[in-house]
Amino acid sequence: MLVPTDVINMKLKKFMKNGIPIHVPERIDDPILNTLTTYNAEIRGLYNYYRLATDVSKKVDRFKHYHYTSLLKTIARKEQISIKQVLNKYGVSVERRLGTGTRKILGVTYETAEGTKTRTYFNEPLCKIDIPYSGKEKNGVVGITYLPRYQILDRYNANKCELCGYASNKQDEFEIHHIRKLKDIKQKYSKRGKVMPEWVLKMVAINRKTLVVCKKCHRKIHQGKMTKSLKIN
Length: 233
Description:
Residues 161-218 form the AI2M/AI1M-like HNH endonuclease domain. Pfam families: AI2M-like_HNH, Intron_maturas2. By secondary structure, the protein is of the alpha+beta class. 39% of the residues lie in helices and 21% in strands. It has eight helices and eleven strands.
């Protein structure tokens, strides 16, 4: 199994032009933590979907180079500063995988009920994973168990908003909304009389931490305007 080169090239269209990484204009107005979360969902979803592929390290690493630089440029454009200044402001030191010492990677510090936390750009090794073995064989063929996380790219490739139903053959019209834990968002709206937005209801209904949405719905989610919902009694 190999990662299709045309898939990588298609997904890079949003993040590069004439071979150079570019910022994403529609993400400039989003809070930086939300922007980082969106980029992380994209790179993680791509890797999880193709991590059984022999050349996943090479192909996804190429995507990651342009993708990460696009993130830096988007934040730089938002704050009207240089990429170097972005890393000086938001850089988090992480250990190098090869050699010794540390390097800086973009990260955002935020407050939660458990205290201060920091989220960095996707920093997991892009290595090939062996095929999961289900423990069953039939006629000499090994059974394979695929986990639900492999479905995110199938949903994204459907080119349809999971909230409003908008469909288009242009994949760059869709984005992935991602939350860290479904149970946390459910607890947030569990208080009596608390309004649960439509996008939360959808996540609960499909039992997923991700939603594939059109740009219009994604903006409404981050602006708190996706309010068509019901109250929890």
